[in-house]
Amino acid sequence: MDKGTVIRTIVLAIALMNQFLVGFGLYEIPGTEEEQTGVLSSAFTFIAATVAWFKNNYLTAKGKKQKEVLRKEGLTKSK
Predict the structure, then answer these.
(1) pLDDT at 15
(2) What's the chain's Rg over C-alpha atoms?
(3) Each residue of 7-38: pLDDT tens digit?
(4) Higher pLDDT among residues 5 and 69, named by residue
(5) Residues 22 and 38: beta-carbon distance below 8 Å
(6) What is the DSSP secondary structure assignment for residue 31, as one 8-state letter?
(7) Does residue 65 contact residue 73 with C-beta atoms inside 8 Å?
(8) What's the whole-model pTM score?
(9) How distant, in Å, are the alpha carbons of 5, 45, 65, 68, 79 from that of 72?
(10) Contact 2, 78 (CB under 8 A)
(11) What is the pLDDT of residue 78?
(12) 39 closest CA partner among 49, 50, 29
C-alpha cells in the first residue's frame, strides 16, 4: 500500500472510533456542548468516509494490477 492509502485508512478508523464513542456518550470533545460534539463528530466522520470512499486506494488484486499498468504507462504520480 502507498502512504496515502495508509493515511486515509488511519483517519477513517479514527473517525469511526470517535463516532462510536460519541454515539454511546463515552467521549466528548473538551470545551464544547453535547450537540456541538455530535455535529463535529458527524462532520469529521462524513469527511473522512467521503475521502476514503472516492479516493482510488488500489486495495484489491485487480486494483493493484490497474495501478501497475498506470505506473508503467507513466499516468500516475507514484514512483
Answers:
(1) 83
(2) 17
(3) 888 888 888 888 888 788 776 555 557 777 77
(4) 69
(5) yes
(6) T
(7) no
(8) 0.45
(9) 20, 35, 11, 6, 10
(10) yes
(11) 60
(12) 29
pLDDT of residue 75: 85
Question: Quick one: cell of 39?
Answer: 455535529
More confident residue, 2 or 71: 71
How far apart CA 25 and CA 1 sit, in angstroms, is 35
Q: Return the beta strands (E) in 21-73 as ranges.
A: none
C-alpha–C-alpha distance, residues 79 and 65, integer Å? 15
Cell digits for 71?
505506473
Cell of residue 56, nine digits: 482510488
Q: Which residue has the cell 469527511?
A: 47
Determine the Cα–Cα distance for residues 5 and 59; give it in Å rounded to an integer: 9
Alpha-carbon span 78 to 61, nearest angstrom? 18
Q: What are 40-51's pLDDT values in tens digits?
A: 788 888 888 887
Domain spans, the chain: 3-72
